[in-house]
Amino acid sequence: MKMKKFGTVMIAAALLVAGFVPAARAAISVKGDAYAGYYDKYVWRGFDLSGAKPVIQGGVDLSLKGFTLSYWSNLQQTDGKMTETDITLDYAYDVSPLLSLNGGNIHYALDGIDDTNELYLTATLNTLLNPSVSVYWDYFQASKAGLFYTVSIGHTFALADKLGLNLGALASYNQDSDYSVGAYSAWHDYELSASLDYALTGQITITPSVLFTEGITTVARSAIGTQWQGGVSASFSF
Fold first, then answer.
1. 14 phi/psi in degrees, rounded to 5
2. Could you tell me the pLDDT band of residue 9, with boundaries at 50, 70 and 90?
3. 3-class DSSP state for residue 200?
4. Is 76:53 a contact under the CB 8 Å cutoff?
5. For 206, how many CA atoms within 13 A lie in the half-sphere containing its CB?
6. pLDDT tens-digit map of 191-220
7. Which residue stretches of the chain are H helix?
8. CB 49 within 8 A of CB 81
9. What's CA 160's distance to the chain center, in Å?
10. Which of 10, 179, 190, 221 stands the most exposed, by the fewest C-beta atoms within 10 Å?
11. 212 touches 192 (CB < 8 A)
12. Contacts of 147 by beta carbon, 8 Å cutoff, 6+ apart
């Protein structure tokens, strides 16, 4: 199935499900959100995947009893071409009040190259700065280890009744994830992010954001260099 057709079908299905959710809530406790944003480029793991051109990104999340099914897509704003669609199935579990785990599978439907899948697992400490460690395994296309690790921290500051400032930092390590990142084992990139959440209503939030990322080691810097990304998104929770 062509990427654009696949993405269109998934958007229609996601919107249909989102419209069905209010009627279904009486029978089952489903929560979710739908969101869309405009960004000056698409940056993923330090790579500029849109050729420094603006993109429109959006998706839908549906959650039930610890499981979350997510749809996300990237649309090139200049030519209307959908270059990526991700379908994620996630399960979250609180081991204790201090430790939370979540894991699942990400299916990457990509335009022009073969699709792939990653399994992932994240452990988060529910304490100051919410430190977390994640591991991703490309078991579908990577010919070597196919592993990618991240460590991150973050905090939200309440600036006003309807306004919050989110600050985050992340560092990553690549272990021969040769299909998606590179055929090397070394520290990959670090990211610094900031965003503002403004609650327009009880269900609608507007979020301007900025991201800075740079390669840590020489091999990573030669592949990704330094990237800035800025944009704004709107989300609707239900």
1. -65, -45
2. very low
3. coil
4. yes
5. 4
6. 999 999 999 999 999 999 999 999 999 999
7. 3-24, 218-224
8. no
9. 27
10. 221
11. yes
12. 135, 136, 137, 138, 174, 175, 176, 177
Contact 129, 151 (CB under 8 A): no
| Residue among 119, 122, 147, 148 at smallest CA distance from 133 | 122
Using alpha carbons, select from 221, 218, 144, 214 the residue that is nearest to residue 176: 144
Model's pTM, two decimal places? 0.88
So what's the architecture of 3-237 in CATH? Beta Barrel (2.40)
Phi-psi region of 52 (alpha: psi -120 to 50; beta: other; left: phi over 0): left
Contacts of 236 (CB under 8 A, 6+ apart): 33, 34, 35, 203, 204
Give residue 27's pLDDT: 60
Residue 192 is encoded by which pair of tokens? 């610094």
Domain positions in the chain are 3-237
